[in-house]
Structures are given as structure tokens and as C-alpha cells.
Amino acid sequence: MSRFFSNKYSQLIPYTPGEQPKDTKYIKLNTNESPYPPSEKAQEYAAEAAKNLQLYPDPECRQLTEALAKGLGVSSDEVLLTNGSDEILNFAFMAFCDDSHPAIFPDITYGFYSVFAEINGIPYEEIPLSGDFTININDYIGINKTIFIANPNAPTGIALKTSQIEEILKSNPDNIVVIDEAYVDFGNESCVPLIHKYDNLLVTQTFSKSRSMAGARLGFGVASKALIQDLNTIKYSTNPYNINRMTMAAGLGVLEDEEYTQKNCKAITENRSYTADELKKLGFSLTESGANFVFAKHDSFDGKELYLKLKERGILVRHFDKPKISQYNRITIGTKEQMQTLIETIKSILEGK
Known about the structure:
Layout: E1 27-28, H1 40-49, H2 62-72, E2 79-82, H3 84-96, E3 103-106, H4 112-119, E4 124-127, E5 146-150, H5 162-171, E6 177-180, E7 201-206, E8 219-223, H6 225-235, H7 245-255, H8 258-281, E9 284-286, E10 293-298, H9 303-312, E11 315-316, E12 318-319, E13 329-332, H10 336-350
């Protein structure tokens, strides 16, 4: 770092995103992107919006907000659209955490939580997952801190039931509970309806995974009107034009083509089942994933070595060096053809070919 870098960030360890290769052509199963392109309607709307890029976008995202709220069964003032769900999560750390309201989240979860806490100078605690990688809700009952839970969790893919999340909400009435639902659309129940029952709930979601818009950066939060007002205070104090015209238009196209989204989600969940079954036949142990990825380790083959050998053969998966999960690899679910290639490649690696 330079001699000008602020001391307050000198110990900051930034989030490490998944590899985005620029040279070799890989089968890319490492960053939980959709293997399917955005709907044609989304592409058309974005192209039309590009004709007016000389103008600032609507800072209120009114048309997209109204369409999204209608689909979610909430009012427009209970939704806030952001530049990816990372932005709404950062807003939540800024708005609802401080020395009197420290953050708390699992020790194995989305890696950005600790970074958001660190960069905002917020004290935080990481609660160990159970031995089977599940979240023990008793660890969060009456904790009186700002709680962040990814549901399904990443990188494990394991989901809590909404009834379990309700227990956490009820026991922490004076603290915000953030439920990060980035992967909710792959066979899980959303907590969005609970915002009308609990005024301390913020649910975040993204267009990156199920809606095929990772490259457009569009996310959102759903909560009571009062919480959304708080988050808007942060937004308008940092970047009021946080969503560009093309992304906004593409998002509207996606919402108008829900059948396409559901078709893709169905294909991904089917491919997930196929992949899990085939990996088990090869001697892998897997968590019960409710996401668009599987989390797997082989009973006798080193996790990092498998990751490296797959990379040598043109397949990228995600490996983590944390000791508790260093034998696991997180594998994004792609097309059926991509998953078949993955399985055949792993077979050859295991056979020493």
C-alpha cells in the first residue's frame, strides 16, 4: 500500500471474489452465476435504454420498484433497489450497526459480512456452525445484536426453515435481523411475507443468480417502511444514482418474463440433483443444498488438489482455505452438458488419468 493510505484501513482484508478468467476458456462453475442468459425481453429493454445514457437514471427507480413490489406482494415503500445485494447489505451494516449494536453472523458464511463490519468500524462476532455445518438457532436467540444470516447459507447451501427464523426474530425484538436470500429461488421459502409481522426484519435478494443478471448488478431489500426510509438515508448520502438505466430496464424485462426465470430455476434444481447423485457415486460427501451450487468433499482425495486438477483441465470451481472447509469445493450448477463434463472429468482425475 502507499504511504498515503489511511491508517484506519491498514489492517483491512478485502473480500476475494471468484476467479474471472481472461485468457483460457473455462467451464465456469466457481461464482454461482446462472448458465443461462437474461431473457430476451430483458436484453431488448436494456438495449432500448442505452439510447438515453446521456441522461441520469431515475434515482427512485419508480417503475421497477412498483413492478417488483407488486410481484412480492408488498408496497413500493417497503422495497429498496440497490447496486447488487452487496450494496443493500453494506447499507444495513451502516444503518443498523454500531458500538451499541454489534453485528453477529456465522463463522462460515458469505465472506463479505466480516469485510463490511471491518470497513465500517463495527464490532462483530462470528458464531461457529454446528459440526454438520448447520446454523443452530439457539445461538441467536435473545442475542441482542444485529444478526446477519444467509438463507440458504453460503458456501454450505443449507437453509433454515422460516419457522426457525421467526424464533430468532421474536427473541430479538429490539435488534435488526437481516436475512440474505441470494439463493432463495432454488427451492426455498422466502421470509418476505414476514416483514408485515416483524418490524425488525430486513430481507435482501438479488437478480444475479436466478434472474441471470450477475453482470448488471441489481439487488434489493424488503422491510417495513420505516427501515426502508433508514436505508434510503444511507443511499442518498452515498450514491443516489446507484442503478444505471440499462440495469433498471433489464430488471423490468426480467420481471415481465417470470416464466423464463422459473424455467431456468427448475432446470438448475434438476441439474443439482443429477450432480449430487453422480458425485455421491464417486465417493463424495455433500451438504443438503438449497442453492444453485453443491458443497462437496471426496472421502479420500484432497479438496485443494481436486480444485487445481479441475482447473488444469479447464473447469473452475471454488475452493476455500479456511481449515474447517478446506476439503470441500463449492461447485456452481451449470447446464446439464456442463455438469456431465464435470463428472466425467472428475472420474478421470480420480482414476489417475
